[in-house]
Amino acid sequence: MKRLCSFAIILALLFISGCSSLNENLPHYVKSVTAYKEGEEGLMIYFILADASGAMTTSDGKVILTIYERSYWVKLYSRSFNVKKTDFQKTKVGMSAFEREVILCSIGRITYSSFTRWPYKMTGKVDLEFQRPDGQILTGSETVSF
Q1: Closest among 94, 89, 92 to 104, alpha carbons compared
Q2: CA angle 40, 42, 46 (to 5 degrees)
Q3: What values do phi and psi take at 19, rounded to 5?
Q4: Alpha helices, DSSP H only, in the chain?
Q5: φ, ψ for residue 40 (rounded to 5)?
Q6: Which terminus of the chain has fewer CB atoms gathered within 10 Å of its CB, N or C?
Q7: Are the C-beta atoms of 64 and 110 separated by less than 8 Å?
Q8: How many angstroms separate the first and last alpha carbons of the chain?
Q9: What are the tens digits of pLDDT across the range 75-106?
Protein backbone atom coordinates (compact mmCIF):
# COMPACT_ATOMS: atom_id res chain seq x y z
CA MET A 1 0.00 0.00 0.00
CA LYS A 2 2.84 2.41 0.87
CA ARG A 3 4.46 1.71 -2.47
CA LEU A 4 1.20 2.43 -4.33
CA CYS A 5 0.74 5.74 -2.48
CA SER A 6 4.34 6.77 -3.19
CA PHE A 7 3.89 5.92 -6.87
CA ALA A 8 0.66 7.97 -7.02
CA ILE A 9 2.38 10.96 -5.40
CA ILE A 10 5.29 10.78 -7.85
CA LEU A 11 2.89 10.62 -10.82
CA ALA A 12 0.91 13.57 -9.49
CA LEU A 13 4.10 15.64 -9.06
CA LEU A 14 5.26 14.79 -12.57
CA PHE A 15 1.87 15.77 -13.98
CA ILE A 16 1.82 19.06 -12.06
CA SER A 17 5.39 19.97 -13.05
CA GLY A 18 4.66 19.09 -16.68
CA CYS A 19 1.59 21.33 -16.69
CA SER A 20 3.41 24.27 -15.20
CA SER A 21 6.02 24.66 -17.96
CA LEU A 22 6.04 28.05 -19.63
CA ASN A 23 5.70 28.75 -23.35
CA GLU A 24 9.14 28.89 -25.00
CA ASN A 25 8.03 29.85 -28.52
CA LEU A 26 10.15 32.53 -30.17
CA PRO A 27 8.84 36.01 -29.23
CA HIS A 28 7.55 38.16 -32.08
CA TYR A 29 6.73 41.33 -30.17
CA VAL A 30 6.70 43.01 -26.76
CA LYS A 31 3.13 42.51 -25.58
CA SER A 32 3.45 45.10 -22.82
CA VAL A 33 5.82 47.12 -20.70
CA THR A 34 4.43 48.02 -17.30
CA ALA A 35 5.95 50.76 -15.16
CA TYR A 36 4.45 52.32 -12.07
CA LYS A 37 5.53 54.36 -9.08
CA GLU A 38 6.64 52.12 -6.22
CA GLY A 39 7.22 54.07 -3.03
CA GLU A 40 8.13 57.74 -3.00
CA GLU A 41 11.37 57.46 -4.95
CA GLY A 42 11.21 54.55 -7.37
CA LEU A 43 9.56 52.72 -10.25
CA MET A 44 8.62 49.05 -10.57
CA ILE A 45 8.99 47.70 -14.11
CA TYR A 46 8.17 44.43 -15.85
CA PHE A 47 7.55 43.31 -19.43
CA ILE A 48 5.67 40.58 -21.28
CA LEU A 49 6.69 38.99 -24.58
CA ALA A 50 4.32 37.35 -27.08
CA ASP A 51 4.81 34.74 -29.79
CA ALA A 52 3.37 34.90 -33.32
CA SER A 53 -0.05 33.73 -32.09
CA GLY A 54 -0.19 36.38 -29.34
CA ALA A 55 0.43 33.90 -26.52
CA MET A 56 2.74 35.05 -23.76
CA THR A 57 6.18 33.48 -24.03
CA THR A 58 9.68 33.37 -22.56
CA SER A 59 13.06 33.86 -24.19
CA ASP A 60 16.73 34.36 -23.60
CA GLY A 61 17.85 37.77 -24.81
CA LYS A 62 19.31 41.18 -24.11
CA VAL A 63 17.24 44.03 -22.67
CA ILE A 64 18.01 47.71 -23.10
CA LEU A 65 15.94 49.81 -20.71
CA THR A 66 15.78 53.60 -20.98
CA ILE A 67 13.76 56.01 -18.84
CA TYR A 68 13.03 59.51 -20.13
CA GLU A 69 11.50 62.59 -18.57
CA ARG A 70 8.83 64.29 -20.67
CA SER A 71 10.78 67.55 -20.76
CA TYR A 72 12.47 67.44 -24.17
CA TRP A 73 12.78 63.67 -23.53
CA VAL A 74 15.74 64.00 -21.20
CA LYS A 75 17.32 60.59 -20.59
CA LEU A 76 17.29 59.86 -16.87
CA TYR A 77 18.37 56.21 -16.86
CA SER A 78 19.77 53.63 -19.25
CA ARG A 79 20.88 50.08 -18.62
CA SER A 80 21.37 46.90 -20.63
CA PHE A 81 21.36 43.38 -19.25
CA ASN A 82 20.79 39.80 -20.31
CA VAL A 83 17.75 37.74 -19.35
CA LYS A 84 17.12 34.02 -19.52
CA LYS A 85 13.95 32.02 -20.00
CA THR A 86 14.18 31.13 -16.32
CA ASP A 87 13.84 34.84 -15.40
CA PHE A 88 10.21 34.75 -16.59
CA GLN A 89 7.50 33.74 -14.15
CA LYS A 90 3.82 32.95 -14.25
CA THR A 91 1.92 35.17 -11.82
CA LYS A 92 -1.29 37.13 -11.39
CA VAL A 93 -1.53 40.88 -11.92
CA GLY A 94 -4.42 43.28 -11.51
CA MET A 95 -7.22 43.29 -8.97
CA SER A 96 -10.78 42.01 -8.76
CA ALA A 97 -12.39 41.66 -12.18
CA PHE A 98 -9.14 42.85 -13.80
CA GLU A 99 -6.99 40.12 -12.24
CA ARG A 100 -5.36 37.87 -14.82
CA GLU A 101 -2.53 35.38 -15.11
CA VAL A 102 0.53 36.49 -17.08
CA ILE A 103 4.05 35.35 -17.91
CA LEU A 104 6.34 38.28 -17.14
CA CYS A 105 9.95 39.21 -16.63
CA SER A 106 10.38 41.55 -13.69
CA ILE A 107 13.10 44.16 -13.96
CA GLY A 108 12.36 45.13 -10.39
CA ARG A 109 12.38 48.45 -8.60
CA ILE A 110 14.58 51.23 -9.93
CA THR A 111 15.19 54.07 -7.51
CA TYR A 112 15.43 57.70 -8.55
CA SER A 113 18.85 57.84 -6.87
CA SER A 114 20.14 55.62 -9.73
CA PHE A 115 18.95 58.20 -12.32
CA THR A 116 21.41 60.69 -13.85
CA ARG A 117 19.32 63.37 -12.13
CA TRP A 118 16.10 63.60 -10.14
CA PRO A 119 12.96 63.91 -12.35
CA TYR A 120 11.52 67.45 -12.39
CA LYS A 121 8.41 66.74 -14.44
CA MET A 122 5.49 64.57 -13.38
CA THR A 123 5.56 62.19 -16.33
CA GLY A 124 7.99 60.34 -18.52
CA LYS A 125 8.42 57.29 -20.69
CA VAL A 126 10.00 53.87 -20.27
CA ASP A 127 11.42 52.39 -23.48
CA LEU A 128 12.40 48.75 -23.69
CA GLU A 129 14.29 46.95 -26.44
CA PHE A 130 14.47 43.17 -26.37
CA GLN A 131 17.07 41.51 -28.58
CA ARG A 132 16.21 37.91 -29.39
CA PRO A 133 18.98 35.27 -29.62
CA ASP A 134 18.85 35.60 -33.43
CA GLY A 135 19.55 39.36 -33.17
CA GLN A 136 16.07 40.68 -34.04
CA ILE A 137 15.08 43.63 -31.85
CA LEU A 138 11.56 43.95 -30.41
CA THR A 139 10.43 47.25 -28.84
CA GLY A 140 7.87 48.43 -26.33
CA SER A 141 7.20 51.52 -24.24
CA GLU A 142 5.02 52.82 -21.44
CA THR A 143 4.17 56.26 -20.09
CA VAL A 144 5.00 56.62 -16.41
CA SER A 145 4.22 59.06 -13.59
CA PHE A 146 7.10 60.02 -11.29
Answers
A1: 89
A2: 135
A3: -80, -20
A4: 2-19
A5: -75, -25
A6: N
A7: no
A8: 61
A9: 999 999 999 999 999 999 999 999 999 999 99
